[in-house]
Each structure stands twice: as C-alpha cells, then as structure tokens.
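INFO batch 0412 | record 1 of 1 | parsing
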Amino acid sequence: YEGFGSAAHAHLNGRRWWNVRTPERYIELVTAGESPESSSETLDAQTSKREALQLLVRTREGVPIDSFSEADLDEMSELLERHEDRIVLTRAGRLLANEVALRLIDAV
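INFO prediction complete | emitting tokens
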C-alpha cells in the first residue's frame, strides 16, 4: 500500500516506512526535493501475511475462504459471509473489523 502526506505509512516488498508527522515539516522536505520518510522497518513473512489479511478483510474482495477451517468460519458466522471462494465482513462484522481481523489471524 502507498502512503502520501504527513504521518502516512506505506508498504512495499516487505518494507514499511512512514513520513514525518507534521504537515509543515512534510511540505518543507518535499518542497526542497528531499524524502519525507521519517523511519522504516523490514517485515518478516509472517508479519506481512498478517497485515495483508488485516487489510484484505476490510475490502469488498475479502479473504480467500480456503485459509480457514469450517469451525472457524461457523464461529464467526454473524460477522462473516461467504461470496464464492472468499469471505467478507457482514454489516455487523464491519463494525467489529479489528476484532474479526485478530480472530482470523489467530485462526491461520
């Protein structure tokens, strides 16, 4: 994912970085032709996978259903619904997206 603006975070190829916090400093750096990147970190494969799941579950595309057992899906049936080979959040699930993402991560 890409991040633009002050305090924005971005991720590409296992590397996550974030920009300086204040809009004033961000504008100053960009205007001077300098990078607004404040810091960065390299993510291991497991962390990258977890973060991808956290983001995907919030999209209309959802998450591949084959990543989870029937028992896990049944346990969260009020929060998730099946769409072909994927699962997406229900209306109730959208209100609890963080909790659903954490439960899905634990299930993987």
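INFO post-check: The chain has two domains: 9-43, 48-107.
INFO record closed
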